[in-house]
Amino acid sequence: MSIEQQKAIWDKNWQHQSQINPKEILNSHFAQEAYHCLKNFINEKKR
After folding, report:
1. Closest by alpha carbon to 16, among 6, 27, 25, 5?
2. How far is residue 24's CA from residue 42's CA, in Å, rounded to a whole number?
3. What element of type H or E holds 1?
């Protein structure tokens, strides 16, 4: 999946979920982003 596709999905989820509870979604959104970044970073280190 391309970064553009990923972003489109994030944006769609963001718009859908931010109607529920913006603060809660903000936290989970950034938590997931941070998790992916960390995972990628660790995978790079392993090589």
Report:
1. 25
2. 27
3. none
* Non-local CB neighbours of 10 within 8 Å, separated by 6+ positions: 29
What's the whole-model pTM score?
0.38
Structure tokens of 17?
């979920």
Based on DSSP, count helices (H) and strands (E) in the chain, helices before strands: 2, 0
pLDDT tens-digit profile, the chain (47 residues)? 788 888 888 877 776 655 666 676 667 778 788 888 889 998 898 87
- Cβ neighbourhood burial of 25 (10 Å; 0-12, 13-18, 19+): middle
